[in-house]
Structure to design on (276 residues):
């Protein structure tokens, strides 16, 4: 089973013909609300890929919080360990123009109140986390998780050394990898290269690479999250490194073909036969 510890955000998107400059107002926007946050996206993906998944996080006492919980429940995620915080649900205010160029302001809200108090971890469960919750909490996970610990080091922030030493898997994109030289010493690192594919590095040495699966991209939002869920499930269920990379690439490719950050994936095994 898998526990995702991480962020839950309401994504509020205004699509306009062009992005406003500082001090400017642009009219004619189209508004949409959708579930997001790296933690919630990864939990939803993991559950849909077939892993027994629970999420540890926090939402605010508001309608966005209820909607985010409903989206996780619909994906099959166990939500009983998600706390109701006193601050508002985490929110990403997104502006997108006709070319898909965006500007995003994140208000962490309830995500700042995520806590591991009273949470028990068992040795046979994998834990997957990201850096949209406090680094102190990630350090606490490094101390307390007895089983497989995967850290998606996104957004790019310097990781506490104890986390780099303890993590069984660190997942980053090419940009994050370039920002975090400390990952050269990490035990196992997956680096994603968008439409080029992804690689696994052990102590800075590449041990496997897999080309991306060809896709017709609609939105790359959530592709990295789906990839993280798939790779963690693949590696912890015993797939060979290259096969796990290929399965995760196939899931990432499926994710870019839909607009939602929480797409309706099939079970992970269905992405495998296509590879053979
Ligand atoms: P992030 O979204 O975190 O920056 P990437 O863009 O590297 O991460 O995407 C994560 C993974 O999703 C890639 O390694 C790849 O497997 C898949 N992916 C992303 N973009 C594409 C694409 N255009 N075509 C096919 N697969 C893609």
């Amino acid at each position: 089973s898998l526990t995702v510890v991480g962020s839950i955000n309401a994504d509020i998107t205004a699509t306009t013909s062009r992005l406003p400059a500082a001090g400017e107002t642009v009219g004619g926007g189209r508004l949409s609300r959708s579930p997001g946050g790296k933690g919630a996206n990864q939990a939803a993906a993991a559950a849909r890929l077939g892993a027994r998944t629970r999420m540890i996080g926090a939402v605010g006492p508001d309608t966005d919080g209820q909607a985010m919980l409903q989206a996780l429940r619909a994906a099959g995620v166990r939500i009983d360990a998600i706390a109701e915080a006193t601050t508002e649900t985490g929110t990403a205010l997104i502006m997108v123009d006709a070319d898909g160029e965006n500007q995003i302001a994140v208000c962490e809200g309830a995500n700042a109140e995520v806590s591991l108090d009273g949470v028990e971890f068992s040795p046979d469960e994998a834990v997957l986390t990201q850096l949209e919750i406090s680094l102190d909490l990630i350090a606490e996970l490094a101390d307390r998780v007895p089983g497989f610990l995967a850290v998606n080091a996104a957004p790019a922030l310097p990781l506490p050394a104890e986390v780099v030493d303890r993590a069984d898997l660190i997942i980053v994109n090419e940009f994050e990898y370039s920002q975090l030289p400390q990952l050269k010493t990490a035990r196992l690192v997956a680096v994603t290269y968008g439409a080029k594919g992804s690689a696994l590095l052990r102590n800075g040495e590449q041990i496997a690479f897999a080309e991306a699966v060809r896709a017709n991209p609609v939105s790359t939002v959530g592709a990295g999250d789906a990839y993280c869920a798939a790779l963690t499930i693949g590696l912890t269920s015993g797939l060979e490194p290259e096969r796990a990379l290929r399965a995760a690439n196939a899931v990432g490719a499926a994710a870019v073909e839909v607009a939602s950050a929480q797409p309706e994936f099939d079970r992970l095994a269905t992405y495998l036969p296509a590879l053979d």
